Amino acid sequence: MHPSYYHKAHACIMVFDVQRKITYKNLSSWYKELREFRPEIPCCVVANKIDADMKVTQRSFTFGKKQGLPFYFVSAADGTNVVKMFRETIQRAVDYKQNPGDFMDEVMQELENFDLEKKEDNSEAEEDGLKVESPEGV
Ligand SMILES: Nc1nc2c(ncn2[C@@H]2O[C@H](COP(=O)(O)OP(=O)(O)OP(=O)(O)O)[C@@H](O)[C@H]2O)c(=O)[nH]1
User: In this entry, which stretches build a coiled coil (predicted)?
Assistant: First the structure.
């Protein structure tokens, strides 16, 4: 996958198709690649298409467990666990964004906070009747 897809990602949802074994087997190489670019972001594993054969939910898919990742049985077709999986993963993404475990992300967060503070300062100054202009007049 092109590295730009990993840029600034705050979570990863790894989906495989329970009807296609190869998609499960490929998870480890996808995961390896992900961790090269985003070593600390939250990630989960999703077994999709359980509606096609509910018996798969009796099986154990150990990849997620081995990596310490949350695991969900999902059906995109009938909606089983879709909302739960997204809710929990988004929450983890938000938590990570606020408190990143990766040095580069910490730097990005600091820059973002700095930008926000600058914007707040400018709008407060404008409210006080002071027009703030950048040196270039942009
Ligand atoms: N029964 C069932 N079929 C599904 C489910 N999710 C997706 N499909 C079907 O699987 C096929 C592929 O779905 P896509 O949304 O194209 O997924 P994709 O990841 O882009 O798949 P590829 O094009 O094969 O890479 C479609 O025919 C979908 O209708 C599901 O939860 N249950």
Answer: none
pTM: predicted TM-score of the whole model, two decimal places = 0.81
Q: Is 77 in the pocket of ligand 1 (CB under 6 A)?
A: yes
Ranges of each domain in the chain? 3-99, 100-130
76 lines ligand 1 (CB under 6 A): yes
- For the chain, what is the HEC assignment? CCHHHCCCCCCEEEEEECCCHHHHHCHHHHHHHHHHHCCCCCEEEEEECHHHCHHHHHCCCHHHHHHCCCEEECCCCCCCCHHHHHHHHHHHHHHHHHCCCCHHHHHHHHHHHHHHHHHHHHHHHHHCCCCCCCCCCC
CATH superfamily of the domain spanning 3-99: P-loop containing nucleotide triphosphate hydrolases (3.40.50.300)
Complex ipTM value: 0.91
9-27 pLDDT per residue, tens: 999 999 999 999 999 999 9
